[in-house]
Design a protein that fits this description.
Length: 295
């Protein structure tokens, strides 16, 4: 029988360090989350390194790892030891010249419950991801685990209602968004509040429109690894919300934290029964959504 209730967690961290240190740090924080009762635990995007996409530099491809190597081995053993599900976002080297921004979903027995490759790839100042990442080719997925049905999207995917909708329609009870988003320090005073607010609002909207739980795991800290540049100030503010967009747990902008909240499938069903958005979808009229523009 599926679990009617289970606890999920997002871990908010400063990850501006080398891979070995970040791995040790994340393992320790996952242990702490499990000790606090979390059963499904997500790390932030590209957990193993600083956010290297601030520049276009071929040397950064050395940060990538092949499938089922360092990260999978370490967190597979940890998931099995602790009996928890772990979402591990990492820089995937698929082959020479093809790299992805990916995430493992590792089940409680240490096996792979799913692999997600980021579908939407940004190219903004200091977020030069198109230089590094091939767009995902595995589609939007629900990943059944021994704790629940988990959907994983990554960062820039946050802005696309189609991604959330398809993942929810496939059966995901929770949408996890491992994330690396922040302010350009020189813009923060003028635009910062609106940027952060839009980020929160769009994901809360996905929760409401699809009757799902949403959990976003962001970084914190100023990452200024390039000399003579302002860097990026990651704004933290990780959160978990329920199927009506209600905030269940909210992190600060500048502290390392674990957020934990309970998924209640009876509540989710009740919300969907009272707000039957899936029932009333006019799928006969949505054909144009697959066009780039409706000219």
């Amino acid at each position: 029988m599926p679990n009617k209730k289970y606890k999920i967690a997002v871990i908010q961290l400063n990850l501006n360090d080398v891979a070995e240190n970040n791995l040790k740090k994340c393992i320790s924080w996952v242990r702490d989350a499990a000790a606090q009762g979390a059963e499904v635990i997500s790390l932030p995007e590209l957990y193993s390194s600083h956010y290297f996409c601030q520049s276009e530099d071929v040397d950064n491809f050395a940060l990538a790892e092949p499938l089922y190597s360092t990260s999978f081995i370490a967190f597979s053993e940890l998931a099995k030891e602790l009996g928890v599900v772990i979402i591990v976002p990492f820089f995937e080297k698929r082959m020479a010249g093809i790299y992805h921004n990916s995430a493992y979903i590792i089940d409680t027995d240490g096996t792979e419950a799913g692999l997600y490759r980021k579908m939407h790839i940004p190219d903004d100042p200091a977020f030069y991801e198109k230089f590094y990442f091939t767009p995902g080719d595995l589609g939007f997925k629900n990943n059944p685990t021994k704790k629940g049905n988990i959907g994983t999207l990554i960062c820039w995917d946050q802005w696309y209602p189609e991604a959330a909708r398809i993942t929810a329609l496939k059966g995901a009870e929770v949408l996890f968004y491992p994330t690396a988003i922040g302010w350009h320090p020189q813009e923060k005073e003028q635009y910062g509040e609106n940027q952060y607010g839009a980020w929160m609002n769009v994901m809360k909207g996905h929760a409401v429109a699809n009757g799902v739980y949403v959990a976003a795991a962001n970084r914190i800290g100023l990452e200024q690894y390039l000399p003579n540049t302002p860097g990026i100030e990651f704004w933290g503010a990780s959160f978990i919300c329920g199927p009506q967009g209600e905030i269940l747990a909210q992190a600060s902008h500048d502290k390392e934290e674990i957020l934990i909240a309970e998924v209640d499938l009876d509540l989710q069903e009740n919300v969907r029964q009272n707000w039957p958005f899936f029932r009333d979808r006019r799928i006969d009229a949505f054909g144009d959504i697959t066009k780039r523009a409706i000219d």
